[in-house]
TrEMBL record:
Belongs to the cytochrome P450 family. PANTHER family: CYTOCHROME P450 YJIB-RELATED (PTHR46696:SF1), P450, PUTATIVE (EUROFUNG)-RELATED (PTHR46696). The keyword Membrane does not apply. This is Cytochrome P450. GO terms for molecular function: heme binding; iron ion binding; monooxygenase activity; oxidoreductase activity, acting on paired donors, with incorporation or reduction of molecular oxygen. InterPro entries: Cyt_P450 (IPR001128), Cyt_P450_B (IPR002397), Cyt_P450_CS (IPR017972), Cyt_P450_sf (IPR036396). The lineage of its organism: Bacteria, Bacillati, Chloroflexota, Ktedonobacteria, Ktedonobacterales. It comes from Ktedonosporobacter rubrisoli. Keywords: Heme, Iron, Metal-binding, Monooxygenase, Oxidoreductase.
Length: 405
């Protein structure tokens, strides 16, 4: 049987139909698949099943902090000359384990409760309407560049108090950075993007210290300046995490979600006829067309899983797409059903690292999709769907989605 490689997960034909790909992987009858080279970091394991995914994501023996297995040096203060070293010296909540994880997550979690997020509804609606106003007369747009990207990046930058006029800059930087581990040729460009990003954030923090406002960054600065145990690096890295995690994934939820509905016009019409279905429709789009393929963990000790020895320090990739298409959990796993009631999908992960921004992503998804359905009922693709290009950055997302309306 052909050896599976990391590249198979990101091959365009598998990005186009990831459920068919995960079904083929499942048919190999191997609950764990070994990969020789994961993101240039050596070998690792891919976990396919829903039940295994839940167990591993809740199991404290599977950890995040790779510094525990590496003796690489801290980067010098003068610049960033080694991405990995920088990464390890700039911890944020998604890269660490308790107790640091608990401390870093608590600092911002109050801003992301469903009640706080609900307060953003009218602003998100206003942004969605303004974006459609700008293209309405043209009768066509690129759904990604004109709508799916600017909406979530504007929301998260406003929450943080970052000038939204710089949003295209952030897109370029995050795209440059995403290449790390995917394409060694791009490493230098990624480091340059990171360097520019960090310089920008340092200037921004200095400005916010002088001009505090009613935003998340000012709140974090205040906590730090009042003696909270948040280092400058942690602060920078947390803002960086919120900006990147806070938009790329949602861009892809909107892009992948609209594409899935355009491929299933009867589901599009059903949702148009009954917008009260929007909340469960978004859950189904997260399950069926989710943006994140892998949640990553390291084995903190030698372990045995399904008779397979996993060594301390080895990387374990939990395949969220495969888990969300596990027939044992979802008997009609390959069917897009926006009326699905029983839907404990794992698109936002599980356990202590469960997505902090899930209430925001859900709200953005509901408002954005609801607005498209209402204002552009005739939305249709203007490109053969087979020709669509997929990003190569570790997520599942479209480069662009040209549509007419
Ligand atoms: C964590 C998915 C949107 C912030 C995660 C994780 C997943 C995920 C799977 C867990 C990763 C792991 O266990 O290794 C998604 C999806 C989104 C989305 C599918 C959109 C559809 C957002 C938004 C924000 C956000 C809008 C806003 C700031 C975070 C943060 C974490 C996280 C901070 C780390 C939580 C922790 O480590 O405790 N997300 N996310 N995400 N997400 Fe999201």
């Amino acid at each position: 049987m052909k050896q599976v490689t990391m590249g198979d997960f990101y091959a365009p034909e598998n990005m186009r139909d990831p459920i068919a790909f995960s079904t083929r992987l499942r048919e190999r009858q191997e609950p764990l698949i070994h990969l020789d080279n994961v993101y240039g970091m050596g070998g690792g394991w891919v976990v396919l099943g829903y039940h295994d995914a839940v167990e591993i994501l809740k199991d404290p023996r599977f950890i995040k902090d790779m510094r525990k297995f590496s003796s690489r040096p801290e980067p010098p203060d003068t610049g960033i000359n080694d991405f990995l070293a920088w990464w390890m010296a700039m911890p944020n909540m998604i890269l660490v384990d308790p107790p640091d994880h608990t401390r870093l997550r608590k600092l911002v979690s109050k801003a992301f409760t469903p009640r706080m997020i609900e307060g953003l509804r009218s602003r998100i609606q206003q942004i969605a309407d303004e974006l459609l106003d700008a293209v309405q007369d043209k009768g066509k747009m690129d759904l990604i560049a004109d709508f799916a990207f600017p909406l979530p990046i504007t929301v998260i930058l406003e929450m943080l108090g970052v000038p939204t006029t710089d949003r295209d800059q952030f897109r370029a930087w995050t795209e440059g950075l995403a290449a790390v581990g995917m394409d060694p040729q791009q490493e230098q460009a990624a480091i340059a993007a990171l360097d520019a990003f960090i310089r920008y954030l340092k200037k921004f923090l200095a400005y916010k210290r002088e001009h505090p406002g009613n935003d998340l960054t000012s709140g974090m600065l205040q906590a730090r300046d009042q003696g909270d145990t948040l280092s400058e690096n942690e602060l920078l890295s947390t803002i960086w995490l919120l900006i990147t995690a806070g938009h790329k994934t949602t861009v892809n939820l909107l892009g992948n979600g609209v594409l899935a509905l355009l491929q299933h016009p009867e589901q599009w019409r059903l949702l148009q006829a009954d917008p009260a279905l929007l909340p469960i429709a978004i859950e189904e789009l997260l399950r069926y067309a989710g943006p994140i393929i892998f949640a990553k963990r390291f084995a903190s000790e030698d372990l045995c899983l399904h008779g397979q020895n996993i060594h301390k320090g080895e990387l374990v990739l939990i395949d969220l797409v495969a888990a969300n298409a596990d027939p044992k959990q979802f008997p009609t796993f390959d069917k897009l059903d926006i009326t699905r009631e029983e839907n404990q999908h794992l698109a936002f992960g599980k356990g202590i690292h469960h997505c902090l921004g899930a209430p925001l992503a859900r709200l953005e998804g509901q408002v954005a999709l609801g607005t498209l359905l209402r204002r552009l009922p005739q939305l249709r693709p203007t490109i053969e769907l087979e020709q669509l290009a997929w990003t190569y950055d570790g997520l599942r997302g479209l480069v662009s989605l040209p549509v007419a309306f």
